[in-house]
Automatic annotation (TrEMBL):
SUPFAM superfamilies per UniProt: ClpP/crotonase
Name listed for the protein in its UniProt record: Enoyl-CoA delta isomerase 1, mitochondrial
UniProt xrefs under InterPro entries: ClpP/crotonase-like_dom_sf (IPR029045), Enoyl-CoA_hydra/iso (IPR001753)
UniProt keyword annotation of Methyltransferase present: no
Organism, as annotated: Bugula neritina (Brown bryozoan)
Complex formation: Homotrimer.
Gene Ontology CC annotations of this record: mitochondrial matrix
GO molecular-function term, one example from the UniProt record: delta(3)-delta(2)-enoyl-CoA isomerase activity
Pathway given in the UniProt record: Lipid metabolism; fatty acid beta-oxidation
Alphabetized UniProt keyword annotations: Acetylation, Fatty acid metabolism, Isomerase, Lipid metabolism, Mitochondrion, Transit peptide
Gene Ontology BP, a term: fatty acid beta-oxidation
């Protein structure tokens, strides 16, 4: 699709959009709440009135996110249930499974839904969060490349702002966060898992890493900061330049993931790790996390607009668009050849 026709479609979508945030929120299968509020769990049933309650209850949203949801909700209407979220009533631990076939790539709508759900879980008082995937062999393929290829600029800006928002929320989250990496986790997928406090990866023919340079693009500073904080400066230096995708065994050896276990043991390992973390006084644990992560968070928080401008100016360069186009074509070709 040409840039002009993509812009026109986006303009039409914006003009048509009459949907409220409440409609948007129906996209996610979420019924959460703690204490006296009803919620859906593996252990408890959800009644119709419970569902109505959770769908109607107001969420704490930044005004930016509300605007995003209103602006672009039309496009996301065809995609149901991007996330499967449940809360265990006894432990207060939420499980959020990404289910956006084929590869859980982060589009604007998906990122918005993730932000909304993080806010909701936090405001409902969840103590822990497990992030996983419902798709076999895929954690997440990272950013939706078509968001960056021949983009509409307004949408591109919103896309990046929402990614920043998601990273800020997750990296500094008060909840104990554990990534259950049961599939490939390149680029943005790796970033999301690195935002978590602990990573459990399935063994097998899977890869994880920041491979941006293989696409001809550069991981922004906050991606590389996150990697440096995870694996150390020297390893990050090599990995970022080479666009290194690690096998699970390589990833555990450099500390990119904390545990590698057989696929069938991932859930139990995550559960027992979470149980251990839950024993630590929450306030002290979160403050300790922030002591280490706040400087990294601040770096982006103080330069958000500049970061968006840099991203837009970089990604819309003709040479970068050409690289992205070639990478996308190669992906499609490989997929067709299977
Ligand atoms: C000095 C100046 C500095 C300035 C810096 C400023 C700003 C920074 C600028 C830019 C940074 C932007 C950051 C980007 C981070 C990213 O996340 S980019 C995305 C990177 N992701 C990848 O490279 C993963 C690509 N995908 C794969 O390798 C494989 O799909 C997989 C994940 C390993 C799964 O393999 P599998 O065999 O199961 O599936 P297929 O390959 O067959 O794919 C199925 C289907 O999905 C499509 N697809 C795959 N990944 C993506 C994607 N990320 N986005 C969109 N579409 C994707 C694939 O094309 C197939 O489609 P189909 O052919 O239509 O079936």
């Amino acid at each position: 699709m040409s840039m002009a026709s993509k812009s026109m479609l986006n303009a039409q979508a914006l003009a048509r959009s009459r949907l409220s945030y409440r409609c948007y929120n129906h996209l996610s299968k979420i019924h959460v709440g703690l204490g006296s509020t009803p919620y859906s769990t593996k252990n408890s049933k959800v009644t119709a009135s419970h569902q109505a309650h959770s769908l109607l209850s107001p969420c704490k949203l930044l005004s930016q996110q509300k605007a995003t949801a209103r602006k672009f909700s039309q496009r996301s209407l065809g995609q149901d249930n991007l996330l499967d979220v449940s809360v265990d009533s006894s432990s207060g631990v939420a499980t959020l499974k990404m289910q956006k076939p084929p590869v859980n790539s982060f589009s604007l709508e998906f990122l918005t839904s993730l932000c909304i759900n993080l806010d909701k879980l936090h405001s409902d008082g969840c103590r822990g969060l497990v992030i996983g995937s419902s798709l076999p062999k895929i954690f997440s393929a990272g950013l939706e490349i078509t968001e960056m290829y021949q983009p509409d600029e307004a949408r591109l800006r919103e896309f990046w702002r929402t990614l920043q928002e998601f990273w800020i929320k997750l990296y500094g989250s008060q909840m104990i966060t554990i990534a259950a990496i049961t599939g490939h986790s390149p680029a943005g997928g790796c970033l999301v898992s690195m935002c978590c406090d602990h990573r459990v990866m399935a063994d097998g023919k899977l890869t994880i890493g920041l491979n941006e340079t293989l696409l001809g693009i550069v991981a922004p500073r906050w991606f590389s900061d996150t990697l440096i904080n995870t694996v150390g400066h020297r390893e990050a230096e090599r990995a970022l330049q080479l666009g290194k995708l690690y096998s699970p065994q390589e990833a555990v050896a450099v500390g990119l993931v904390d545990q590698v276990v057989p696929l069938e043991s991932v859930a139990a390992t995550v559960e027992s790790t979470m149980a251990q973390w839950l024993k630590i006084p929450s306030h002290a644990r979160h403050l300790s996390k922030l002591q280490l992560r706040q400087p990294t968070l601040d770096r982006l928080l103080h330069t958000r607009q500049e970061d968006i401008d840099n991203f837009v100016s970089f990604i819309t360069k003709e040479s970068i668009q050409k690289s992205l186009g070639m990478y996308l074509a190669a992906l499609k070709q490989r997929s067709k050849a299977k």
